[in-house]
Amino acid sequence: MSASPKVWSRTIVEDNEIVDRTLRGWITAGKFPPPDGNLNGRNFWHLHTYQQWKADVLAGKFAMRRRPCAAVSEADTAASSAPPEAA
Predict the structure, then answer these.
(1) Residue 48: which domain range?
(2) Is residue 47's pLDDT more than 90?
(3) SS3 of 66, please?
(4) How many domains does the chain have?
(5) Does any domain span residue 83?
(6) Does any domain span residue 1?
(7) Which residues are within 8 A (CB) of 6 and not within 5 positions of it... i.e. 6 or more apart?
(8) Which phi and psi angles does 85 have, rounded to 5°?
(9) Helical packing angle, 20-29 and 9-16, nearest 10°
């Protein structure tokens, strides 16, 4: 059995377009799971932990001000670029 792939905090920060401080705040507030481990002072999560969190966010489990960038759907993009209707 091979080890689960690791997702480092830097990857999570970049993927969600946030800063380290925001990630720490989410962990403290219970909006993000605590790290699965720490290697040489760097926090990591197993890939399945991060994937589960993203699925929960997309399902609306956490009240967040904005969703991760991957949550933007094509319908949202099309609706925002459509010209306003004449009144």
Answers:
(1) 6-78
(2) yes
(3) coil
(4) 1
(5) no
(6) no
(7) 37, 39, 44, 45, 46, 47
(8) -80, 145
(9) 100
**Which two three-digit tokens encode residue 73?**
């759907």
- pLDDT per position as a tens digit, 12-42: 999 999 999 999 999 999 999 999 999 999 9
The span from the CA of 42 to the CA of 25, in Å, is 17
- 87: tokens are 């009144």
Report how far Cα 46 is from the mean position of its chain's Cα atoms. Answer: 14
Identity at 5, one-letter amino acid code: P
| First-to-final CA distance of the chain | 63
In a domain, 84, yes or no: no
For residue 72, the tally of other CB atoms under 10 A from its CB is: 12
SS3 assignment, position 53: helix
Q: Rounded to whole angstroms, what are the CA distances from 19 to 5, 16, 26, 70, 84?
A: 22, 9, 11, 17, 34
Read off φ and ψ for residue 84, nearest 5 degrees: -65, 145
